[in-house]
């Protein structure tokens, strides 16, 4: 074949292929169904100068998957590299080392009290002085099933713990909102694995008591996920869950079980925005621990 013919054929083929690409559908709806529906992707990051695709994905989630996500307790993030870099990297900024403690710190005589924990969240009763050394250890106690149950209901209803009386059932607390009731029941199933029959009609104290028989004293999948999300989104960069628990241990003398109690309480007292510094994070934890 002569070179000029080959050149003409190549030109024609290129034009036809480009025309086909421009005229063919991009199958974006099907792509979203695979990403959001089939794969149930929870975190999407768009790499580009604007959140064009991310914006469309958010609209699709609101229109098509919102009820599905609520029923299955799926929480998603749609992020854009150009706008959400800190959230993408969990705002991991360098943190200055804390100054070394005094050479001979005097143990605090008024350390955290070892009194019995409150029903909602077992925490220390007395706030140690900021100048004191490590707090005296408090006898540890695991959280109870009713503690987790009450916090999950309060967190879903966006109410303080005091507004969730244990004498009421989930059906009474949601005020007839069946979708919200189903979301709470889904959270409980995710947390405890199974629930008694008709849990929505049972007062919270009775429901918690019935679930306590098979409860292992450890935070479940739902509460652990909520705590991790709160720490990553509201605590300052570098102040992760390990640092949070370390502060509760050294400042308040709390063991793992009582730390769980504080973190559960924190879910109902979540800051409105990310805290600005590690000192702010510690001060907020101290307020929750009182």
UniProtKB/TrEMBL annotation:
Tagged with keyword Chloroplast: no
Listed InterPro entries: Acyl_Trfase/lysoPLipase, Fas_alpha_ACP, Fungal_FAS, PP-bd_ACP
Domain Carrier: residue ranges: 143-218
Lyase among keywords: no
Protein name listed in UniProt: beta-ketoacyl-[acyl-carrier-protein] synthase I
Domain of life: Eukaryota
Enzyme Commission code: 2.3.1.41
PANTHER family: FATTY ACID SYNTHASE SUBUNIT BETA, MALONYL COA-ACYL CARRIER PROTEIN TRANSACYLASE
Family (UniProt): Belongs to the thiolase-like superfamily. Fungal fatty acid synthetase subunit alpha family.
Family matches, as Pfam families: Fas_alpha_ACP (PF18325)
Any one GO molecular function term: 3-oxoacyl-[acyl-carrier-protein] synthase activity
Keywords: Phosphopantetheine, Phosphoprotein, Transferase
């Amino acid at each position: 074949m002569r070179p000029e013919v080959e050149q003409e054929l190549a030109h024609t083929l290129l034009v036809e292929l480009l025309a086909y690409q421009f005229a063919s559908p991009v199958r974006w709806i099907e792509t979203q169904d695979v990403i959001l529906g089939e794969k149930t992707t929870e975190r999407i990051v768009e790499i580009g100068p604007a959140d064009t695709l991310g914006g469309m994905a958010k609209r699709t989630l609101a229109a098509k998957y919102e009820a599905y996500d609520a029923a299955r307790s799926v929480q998603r993030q749609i992020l854009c590299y150009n706008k959400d870099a800190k959230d993408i990297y969990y705002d991991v900024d360098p943190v200055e080392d804390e100054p070394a403690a005094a050479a001979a710190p005097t143990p605090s005589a008024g350390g955290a009290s070892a009194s019995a924990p409150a029903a909602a969240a077992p925490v220390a009763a007395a706030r140690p002085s900021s100048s004191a050394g490590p707090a005296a250890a408090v006898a540890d106690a695991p959280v109870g099933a009713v503690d987790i149950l009450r916090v999950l209901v309060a967190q879903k209803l966006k109410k303080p713990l005091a507004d969730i009386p244990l004498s009421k059932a989930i059906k009474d607390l949601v005020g007839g909102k069946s979708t919200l009731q189903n979301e709470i029941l889904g959270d409980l199933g995710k947390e405890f694995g199974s629930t008694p029959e008709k849990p929505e009609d049972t007062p919270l104290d009775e429901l918690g008591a019935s679930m306590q028989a098979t409860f292992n004293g450890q935070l479940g999948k739902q509460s652990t996920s909520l705590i991790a999300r709160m720490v990553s989104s509201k605590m300052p960069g570098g102040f992760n869950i390990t640092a949070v628990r370390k502060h509760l241990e050294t400042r308040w003398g709390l063991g793992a079980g009582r730390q769980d109690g504080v973190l559960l309480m924190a879910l109902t007292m979540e800051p409105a925005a990310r805290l600005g510094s590690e000192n702010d994070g510690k001060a907020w934890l101290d307020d929750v621990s009182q």
